[in-house]
Every structure is written in C-alpha cells, then in structure tokens.
Amino acid sequence: MAVVLHLMPAAAWSALADGEPITNASLDTEGFIHCTDEPRVMLLVANAFYTSLPGAFIVARVDTDRLTSRCVWEAPAHISDTGQALAPQFPHVYGPIDRVAVIGTQAMVRDETGAFVGYESVAK
C-alpha cells in the first residue's frame, strides 16, 4: 500500500456529499490531481503555492491501492518561486480520488502570517 497526500480547502472537503469523489480544477486543466508522498514535502508545497489563500486546509491521506484512477509518479508540474523543484517526483492522480481511498485526513496548522507550520489530526 502506498499512501499519497492531497491538499485541499477544508470547506471543499466539508462540501463533499457522502461517497462523492475528490476532484479539483487541476483535473480539468492539467488532467490530474496534484499529490505528494511525504508530510515534509506537503508543507513545502503548501507554503510555496497556497499561503495567499485564506482559510483552513486539510490533507487527505489516500491509499493508492483503493483508487480506480491511476496514480503516476512524475516530474513536478510546477516549480516554486525559488526556481527549484520541491521534490524530484510527485504522485499525480489521473482522475477523481475515490472516497473509499481516503483513509484519513489531517488539518493543516497555520501561523498568524498564513504560513503552514504543521498538522493536526481530525476525524475522517
């Protein structure tokens, strides 16, 4: 079992109906949903791309064996403001993330500046 992590606004997670799969704009525009496979890298990604967005965020823990969409490790689709890749490869999910594949969630902790600084456990 491989576990990948997907960052999303907490409001988007709460708005999903029971059993509704996770989708997002990148699935329409890029053909896949961005994920990471390490909590440390998730913090780097969150701080590189999402600090300007207000509100709470969660990380969905996804068991790739339970996905009906394929998950492929590939070169980064985007480079951070530093011009450096945050990891050599990232998991990309080519389709919706099935809710049965979500084995847990964690809330992201932000400081007063909006930076992401860690994780809190929350119920699935």
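the 2nd protein, sequnce then structure:
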Amino acid sequence: MAKLNKDLLVQMLETMLKIRMFEEKVIELEKRKELPGWLHFYIGEEAVATGVCANLKKEDFICSTHRGHGHLIAKGADMKYMMAELYDKKTGYC
C-alpha cells in the first residue's frame, strides 16, 4: 500500500474532486437530454476509486462493469475522451 504522506493525500483529494466535478457535469448534461443512452452516476463513491487506484501501478489494468467513470478518472484517464465517449463520438475511448 502507498504511504499516506501529505502529498499523496492532497493528490487523492484532487482526484476525488475531479471525479465529483466530472459527474456533476454529466448529470447536468443528462438532465438536459444531451447525452444518448443510459448513465450510472458515480456521485458518492469518489473515495472508493481513488483509494483503490492509488494502490495500482501505471501498468495495472482495471475492469469496471458498472459506474466506471470514477475508476477511469482515478486511473488517470483523459476526461476529454471520456466525455466524447458519453456523446457517442468516434474520438471516445471505445
């Protein structure tokens, strides 16, 4: 497990805030009916993905089957590509 020094704790807080801000934006877009398909939000679970991913190495893989936005962000994914994916654009991850 990674040592919980001040720098790591600040980094983890920043990750949790990134996840929360991304999810709040996605919820806003979904309410305006701008996004196609179904969404499962990650609000309230930010610490789970952050804590787990803080203990992974860069080369480690993750496989999330439900509410995966937080895991991707915590693993360092580019939110621009994540948003493109939600809009069903070719520039998204899948």
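The radius of gyration is 14 Å. The helical segments are 6-31, 46-54, 69-74, 79-86.
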